Amino acid sequence: MKIKWKTLLICIAIPLIVGGIAGFISKDSMRVFETLNKPLLSPPGWLFPVAWTILYILMGIASYLIVTSSAPQKSVSKAIKLYGVQLFFNFLWTFWFFNLGLYFFAFVWLLILWLLILTTMISFAHISKPAMYLMLPYLLWVTFAGYLNLGIALLN
């Protein structure tokens, strides 16, 4: 399969831009995060932007595999809509957690996000198994984020 570079770059740019905007909106978040009581296994603050950058790139590649697949347009459209909804939920979680400090609400929101990611992965699997596998680190990271979110909600 020939790589469609422009499409690939757009697909990677979309989650990176969404994440960048979320990071900009919550730019003072890491200072606040450092002051919170955190559960065991909480990673250092510098790890979050590194991990999210990698995850957004993997998500973008996964969406590229879906967009450029030869699957029926109806399946592709459904999968990309789910992808967009979960990306929107991802974006808003940052706002609920960091900007408003609504830790319990953010945890419930994260549970919904987790289900949306899983649903997106299942939808992707019908079109491209590699796309589904590229979303797996994201699901695992959000699972870990749920542990951290709940821990912070309980400890603060």
Brief synopsis:
The protein has 156 residues and is an all-alpha fold.
Structural account:
This protein is an all-alpha fold. It contains six helices and no strands. Helix 5 (103-125) packs antiparallel against helix 6 (129-155). It is elongated, with a radius of gyration of 16 Å. The N and C termini lie far apart (51 Å). The model has no long low-confidence stretch (mean pLDDT 95).
Notable traits:
mainly alpha, 156 residues
Tell me the number of strands.
0
The structural domain count equals 1
Please tell me what the overall shape is: elongated
Please indicate the percent range of residues in DSSP E strands (runs of 2 or more).
under 5%
What's the pLDDT, averaged over the residues?
A: 95
Q: How far apart, in Å, are the first and last alpha carbons?
A: 51 Å
Radius of gyration: 16 Å
Low-confidence stretches: none
SS element count, helices: 6
The topology string of helices and strands comes to HHHHHH
Question: Main sheet, how many strands, which sense, barrel?
Answer: none
Structural class: mainly alpha
Helix content: over 70%
